[in-house]
Structure prediction request, 1462 residues.
Amino acid sequence: MTRRGVDLALRAVSKRYSGGAGTGIVLDDIDLRVSAGDYVVVIGRSGSGKSTLLNLLGGLDRPSSGAVLVDERNLGAMSERELATLRRCQIGFVFQAFNLIPTLTVEENLLVPLQLNGVDRRAASARVGRVLHDAGMAGLQARFPEELSGGEQQRVAVLRAIVHEPDVVIADEPTGNLDLATARQTLELLESFAGKADRSLVMATHSQEVMGRARRVLEIRAGRLYEVDTRGQSR
Amino acid sequence: MITGRLLPPLLLQAGLRFYVRHPGQLALTIAGIALGVAAIVAIDLAAYSSRQAFAASTRLFRGQATHEVTPAGSPIPDSAVALLRRELGATNSAPVIETRLRFAAQVERAVTLLGIDPFSAGRLQTTWLGGPPTGDSFTRLMTEPGAVLLSSALAAELDAAPGDRLALLEPPGAGELLVTGLLSGNDDERYVLADIATVQSLPRRSVGLSRIDLRLEAGQADQLAPELARRGWRLRPVAARLGQIDSITRSFRINLQALSLLAMLVGAFLVYSTVAFAVVRRRESFGLFRSLGTQRRQVFALVLAEILVLSAAGVVLGLLSGIVLGAGLVRLVLRTIGDLYLSSSVDYYGVSALLLAKATAIGFGASFAAAAIPALEAARARPRIAMNRSALERRRRRQLLPRLLAAAGLGVVAAGILVGTARLEPAFAGIFAALTAAALAAPVLVYGVMHWLAGTVPWLPLSYAARSVAANLSRTGPAVAALMLAVATFSGVGLMIGSFRISVSDWLGYSLDADVLVRPDQPAALATGAREAELLQALRALPGVADVSRSRRVALPDGTGLGGLLAVDPAPSGRWPQAEGARDAILERLAAADRVLVSESFARKRELGPGDAVNLLTAAGERRFEIDAIFTDYTTDLGLVAMHLPRYRSHFDDRQLDSIGLFAEPGREDEVLEAAQELAAARGDLSVTTSAWVRELSLEIFDRTFTITQVLRLIAGLVAVIAVVNALQAQRLDSRRELATLRALGLSPGQLLRLGELQTLLLGAAAGLLAVPVGVLLAWLLIVVVNRIAFGWSMVFDIDWALLGQAVALAAVAGLAAGWLPNRRALRDMPAVALRED
Amino acid sequence: MRRTLLAMAVVFAALAAGVFWLRGGHEAAPPADTATVVSLLGSGDDDGFRRAARPGDIRLPRDHGSHDDYRSEWWYFTGNLTSADAREFGFQLTFFRFALAPPQPRESGWATNQVYMAHFAVADRTADDHRVAERFARGAAGLAGITGKPFNVWLDDWSAASTTAEFLPLQLSARDTATGIALSLRLQPGKPPVLQGDRGLSAKGAEPGNASWYYSYTRLPAAGVVAVDGVNFEVTGLAWLDREWSTSSLAADVVGWDWFGLQLEDGRDLMLYALRHRDGSLAPQSAGSLVGTDGSRRAIWRDDFSVAPTKAWRSPATGVSWPTEWRVRVPDHGLELDVRAALDDQEQDVAVRYWEGAVDIFPAGGGARLGRGYMELTGYRRPPANRPR
Prediction:
């Protein structure tokens, strides 16, 4: 079966947080479309709302108003169960803090999404072995996350996000905690996945280098979203 | 610089604010302390009140008595008082007959009936408890048959007023009593007061006076004592009576003491687990404090200061709920006392300042002791902002072996204590040490089990759950220990009671070996002439009767009066006694020579055995009786001596019978019962019951006696739940981000819930499984060490697998139940919330 | 008559006292006032008891024993004794029997309706010392009782018992360790018994049946030992026995009585009792008798005598004013006597407060002592303390 990817869209989405000091608007009436095969980078200052935007796109959070559409289906109308299925099948997440499950080995961490998708154990193990081998980390499969370096952990996290071949990978500052060389390795791993047909990559970052490699760059300023052309100029 | 002060206010504020922002944590910690304190207060209160009740019953109508005369070998006849006054110079003397009765309107409780001579009581300046009787009831008391005064508390219970007639259930055939007045007053004593003649007119189990109270001048006692001893009576100071009461209530108090100590231990572990959890949760804050320049002793002081505040709240709450719980418990205990012992069952309920002080001290003490280890750990926190949690877990894992070794060492110490002691206090210390060792080892063992599970079972959710349980032991360890201990106590105490019950039931089969029991309403009436022979002949002639046995029971005539003497003429086809050796040979030897059987308690307390001898004060003076064998008896821990009835009669001036057993030919039991009932109805001086009924009643009383232990089990159950809630909160809070990640990976809510439940089930079941051997050990120690030391009797050790299964189930269900809310709460927020939290 | 009232008062009080003692020992309520007991007696239920009705029914020695079918009864021994060194003592040993209810059979060695009270007092005139002891016991289980032949009345180890099959001689024995007094006295036959009132029937009120049986031994030579605080005194003297039993109540207007038993050195014995109304006048049943040296009796009726107090002594203990000296006149027999208490304080503050004590007899207006006797005063109250302010 051939995939045709997935289209993500935000329509008039706002996100407000109510806290002790009153209400803060993080995202204010935003429209966005990420088509299948896109490579989108979101930039902005700390606290500008990058993570919120990504969480909304991935169905980890719900908007205060507006709609999040996945292939024209409104996430707001989906049950938590359907959301879980969506995340399991079509989306992969990479976090700045890696978020590997500390009590599971590298191999087991990678097995989780496959098992969730019902891949049988032998096939799943084979796929995990191949993915690790391709990433040059074949020797690490029996290790626990705490026994890995930060870069290794993040690459395992990336592998976990892509091992079940989702339609879109959402990565929240995946290189934020990494040195330049390690960051580059991680990026290459991500791009190697996203480079394939119809697979999208949405990534929040501060890194100039990443911005240069993306197809689209978006900037969040004061709750609004601006498209930036690759020469670094806002429109 | 904040180094100068032990506890900078801002630090304490930060510490306490943690609890304010985590009210669940606050509630758990306080509840843990409160539960421990409440258990101590409640059980102590019950023990204290039962002692007060006994003491009060001893003081009842004694006035200024200095001494008392009690039967010791011979009954005290009515003429004894005149003898004392007219010939022995003991003018200030007052006869008392004390007995028990049961009103038809209040079947469930027996009441003390005091028969006094008002004029004699006047000589001792006896105080009416609750004020003098009202109206002309005083004259009527002496002149009207069946006239009684009720204490106001009893009158209120029975809803009785002067003029009412109250039907009696016990003694059988006693008819009605007429209430001629009330003893007004505001105390809670419940008793019936009557003229001595009225009491004597009731059918009774024994003849003679219960005692004569005396007010003696200095030196008078020494002259009197030999005169009285010559007649088979004993003179002793009233204070000695209290001593005897002490020995009677000992078994009860020891029971309660053991319970309150166990409750304390369990409570302390709960405090430890809650405090440890609270500290572990904040180790990052402590690390931060340290990085800001706080000194170790300041962090240590901070934790203790927090505990001071929390335990103050917990102690107050515990004292209050302990008093409430205690009130219920006291009622229970006193009812048991009233059932078991022939003494007043007054409802005395007082809270002593001493008791409250003790509970307060223990509450704070246990809290501080329990907090000390976590506080030290907090103080050791390295000065950095975020400590790697996995590093902490690693360190903890490195501590596993030393911990196991410490537990093993403590276990060896416990065994040493338990093997070497013949006293109760060290025995308890030993049991505590053993339980503490088990509690120390529990988290280690849970870790081991989880590790084994994770490595063995190729099912990812299970190995994930097992590993997360194992990985979270730094937080869940103390709670696991508390849970294990609670479940072990639950099952251990249950096993002990179960074993005891089986032993008692077994023994009842031996001691109540006849099918039908016939009791003369007035034993004394049978003791004359040929009336006994006549009755026996009539009974033997009943259709279906194969055999007849007779028995008589009196206070042990050895000068101490502690314990009993049982004289039995057993039936050839009966089962009594329950002793080692061939029954026929034993009975033959008892009949042929001055040989006796002694109960286990007797043998152990006096360190006597077969081949030794007992000296008894017979009518002809002191005589030696050789001990033939040891038999089983649970009627008194003071010890029982048994001899052949004809031998007893040849040595003692007592021809009364307490009970006659009828043995039916096989299949004719009902026929015998009917015939005996007919005979009794025709004669009017016999009561007839079946052994089966008495056995049933005995077990019922047994069960009621141990109802109090159910309270401990209830407390253990509560502790179990709180401990698991504690552990789960720890785990849930820790794994929120992990769960959010899993959700991001696409785990459905149902899957997450099942995963959470699997974890909590594993945790509970592991603790429950570990509790099985510990519970069995506890039961074994209670049976083999405590009961043997305290009461001198042994019992079969019966392992009730159903009960153990129940205990494991309790733990598992406690786990599931406690995880219900946290598991669901983990799903309430969108995953983004948990992910953002850092 | 006199002591029926006292006895009934006392036994009711005894019951009350029993209650008081039982309640709280020393902070007991004060002894019942006679007046209140008098009112209590008025409502007594005497159904089922026999009553003294027909004169001449007394038979001796049968009637020395108890009469359980009458409400109350007593054996009242008093007397004056002198030791070899002329130390003088008065003594009183009294046994009261009181039935709480008519006799009925019950199945208990303790069952009884009979209550016994005994008073034992010694007045040591030389030491100006009067001591009294009081005991109660139920008439069962051998604690207290009466046997007829040989006669014996006892309560604890206090007793009056015939030493032979005859009523006399009698042995009196009593010992009380708390007060330190003891008595062991042999009473020999003196004058024969005299039947008081109308052949032994002593009227108490106007209505028939309201009377008692009453006889006296007015002169019984006595010898034995009196002990005070362990010191024994060999003594001789004269004793007096009053016997009375009845089921009677008190007239409503009687507030108290004064009784005199006087043994004159000329061999005559005079008994008088005066029943006082509230206004001080004497009730018509007041009476007495004079027994001659030969034992012959002359009845004295209310109009034949007068008694008048001549001195009041106020008890420091109770505040009651007792008339301890009297002028006694029996004109028909030429008797005009001054009766004076041997010592003022012979007040008996026991279950019922009364005054019972040894007296000396003088000729009116002064002169050598004419004899000794015993006097009983009841119904005197503390003067009201309502002085105007």
Notes: The first helix of chain A runs from residue 50 to 57. DSSP finds seven helices and eleven strands in chain A. Chains A and C do not touch (no CB pair under 8 Å).
